[in-house]
Amino acid sequence: MAGSSRAPWAADPAASAGRLHPEPAAGGRTEFQRDRDRIVHCTAFRRLEYKTQVFINHEGDLYRTRLTHSIEVAQIARTIARAIGLDEDLTEAIALAHDLGHTPFGHSGQDALDAVMRPWGGFEHNLQSLRVVEQLEQRYAGFDGLNLSFETREGILKRCRPALAASLGDVAERFLRGGSPCLEAQIANLADEIAYSNHDVDDGLRAGLIEIDALAAVELFARHRKAVARQYPALAERRLVHETIRRMISELIEDLTAETLRRVRQAGVQSLAQVRASPPLAAFSAPIRRDLTQLKQFLTERLYRHPRVEVVMDAARGVVSDLFEYYRSQPQALPPEHRDRAERLGERAIADYIAGMTDRFAIRAHRHLTGRRVPELDAG
Ligand code: MG
After folding, report:
1. Gap from CA of 188 to ligand 1 centroid (Å)
2. Ligand 1 midpoint to CA 55 (Å)
3. What spacing in Å lies between the alpha carbon of 99 and ligand 1's midpoint?
4. Which of 13, 59, 66, 169 has CB 3.0 to 4.6 Å from 48, enough for a Cys bridge?
5. Which of 99, 89, 91, 33 is nearest to 257 (CA)?
6. Residue 371: left if φ>0, alpha if ψ -120 to 50, beta else—which one?
């Protein structure tokens, strides 16, 4: 593992539980490096560039997309992983893969697909990320999916209903029997929270949907803003915002690192097996968790539910459900390979096809199939 020493609580690629389809070792790379590389090279990863994080992909060139979000998560997660002696490659692999199953149009796309798929088991983007790496990518001669290591797949599956867990096999076992995934997965998960709650502030301010003064009610933001303004009284607002967010991210990273190490030591954890047997050990301290919760509540109320965001997201939900109903009633409109899958798998294959679409592909397909434009989503 480059640049750090492995702690006894880290996952060890040489002791991995292995791949579904056994493969000879890759010269010069660990098994987790190889997983990370396969994720970077897969189709679903490239499509993240054109999928919405909060703002529709064409609304501006400066907003986060799912791709830049995933890279920010990986960067934050690796920083923490290195500081606490975890396997950086495994942490990075899980972070880069965590949103591979996301639909077009962010959470509204997932909600719409979940609603129309209700009679057939619903749709959950996290579970879909696992489907992408286990089944949907078709690149390798010997198997479907990317044939990733057990630890990476287990880390991608963040949550799972017990009713479903039984059908997913070993990667979902902890949802039936209790226990935790490796710390690399726990850190990737919390790094996701650090990344989006900070970059959404930045994007929301940039879009003019949030006022900087409204953020005075958010303690984490307010205290760093005050400190920056004290140190640099003449700073232009964009730089004040950037410097404030930079310091927020640093504080969250440092807190998560220190609190996780504290808990690991307090629990006397000396092995990965003990990590797995314990309740989650990666955590923020109580005051920082409160700060982060307050920030997330602010974003939910002021940004995610902002009327200007809701108008776009309502339209997006309509596009996704229209596409689903259209392909269901006219499966001949599906591309041949998806038509074949729909004959075998029914509605699930249609959900897989729609989930794989980028924002703009979905908008174009919708216009082509229905002959209607959706002005709220039109790039103009
Ligand atoms: Mg994410």
Report:
1. 10
2. 14
3. 6
4. 66
5. 91
6. left
Token couple for 119: 């009679």
Q: Where in the chain is the domain with CATH 1.10.3210.10?
A: 28-309
**What distance in angstroms lies between residue 329's CA and the mean position of ligand 1's atoms?**
33
3-state secondary structure of 99: coil
Query: How far apart are the C-alpha atoms of 349 and 334, rounded to whole Å?
Result: 10
127, 101 in Cβ contact below 8 A? yes
- Compute the distance from residue 190 Cα to the ligand 1 centre, in Å: 10
C-alpha pair distances (Å), 318 with each of 20, 47, 58, 247, 359: 38, 21, 18, 39, 13
**CA distance readout (Å), 28 to 25, 31, 33, 36:** 9, 10, 10, 14
- Cα(71) to centroid(ligand 1), Å: 10
* Class at the top of the CATH hierarchy for domain 28-309: mainly alpha
What distance in angstroms lies between residue 303's CA and the mean position of ligand 1's atoms? Answer: 17
Helix (H, G, I), strand (E, B) or coil at 123: coil
The predicted-structure confidence for 329-367, as pLDDT tens digits, reads as follows 999 999 999 999 999 999 999 999 999 999 999 999 999
